[in-house]
Amino acid sequence: MNLKLAELFGKGKTVFSFEVFPPKRDVPIETIYETLDELQYLKPDFISVTYGASGSLADNSTCEIASAIKADYGIESAAHLTCVNSTRHELDVMLERLQDGGVENIMALRGDYVPGIEPKHDFEHASDLITYIKSKHYDFGISAACYPEGHPDSTDQVSDVLNLKKKVDAGAEHLVSQLFFDNQIFYDFVDKAKIAGINTPIEAGIMPVTNSKQIERMVSLCGASLPAKFTKMMQRYENKPEAMRDAGIAYATNQIVDLLSHNVDGIHLYTMNNPYIAKRISENVKSLL
Ligand code: FAD
Question: ∠ CA 216-111-207 to the nearest 5 degrees?
């Protein structure tokens, strides 16, 4: 079935989706299918697959996995695609591959600059990639990223929201947020986006933090601010892995319950390829969606 992610919204149920990443270079690709074997029973509305993020493979594996999620697991999928380190020709090849693989949805991203690698200059921003995909008349649904606390490269939040509007005007029909730990920041951002004329569904990106190493990495990468109740929890349980895991699941669950009571469009769970944690959180919130 041909389904654009934007069509999932406004159907009387909050969209609940997952993100997975292709295995890292030293891990066999099969491991992702073991993860998906378990995630499928949680019946997410869609699963998105990252592209070259955090040391995972920026090759055909994103396409292969997104294609399998749809064809073999019967779940809608989205393939992430970044442009800053690719030429137009390389993207043409990838777009053809995604189309041939039956992938219907693309999360169009700029991607991060990689230290020591000169970026290709065919595309400067995600909006350029979206414009390009649209100009080629592909029939992909297009999603894009948004940043409740502003993108780290931005000088201020107003210009970041105005740049987000450019992505929407270029053709992004659905947005997924960067992770955050303070829901008020997300609500304020959604208000600003609405004032800027952004009327696409905005999914809240939720990252269950289940070990202290993970949070150090995440915060250094995306600069998310940490509320006092969150840091207190981290300090209390950092040397007790099981308690830390359970506290992280409880914190993410509380965030989701609060978001649902504020009528959020959707929840996008960063699963970190951990079906156990996704399962616990899904069980906690499934009757509330
Ligand atoms: P852009 O939208 O291009 O924004 C980047 C900066 O440029 C911002 O400061 C913005 O305000 C500014 N800007 C945007 N458009 C314009 C314009 N037209 N004119 C002037 N300024 C502009 N990275 C990966 O490598 N692989 C992934 O799979 C991946 N998935 C992600 C999924 C989500 C939900 C999120 C939130 C991020 C993801 N990232 C991924 C990280 C992302 O690639 C980085 O945050 C990157 O630095 C910015 O990508 P973007 O698409 O948001 O960029």
Answer: 40
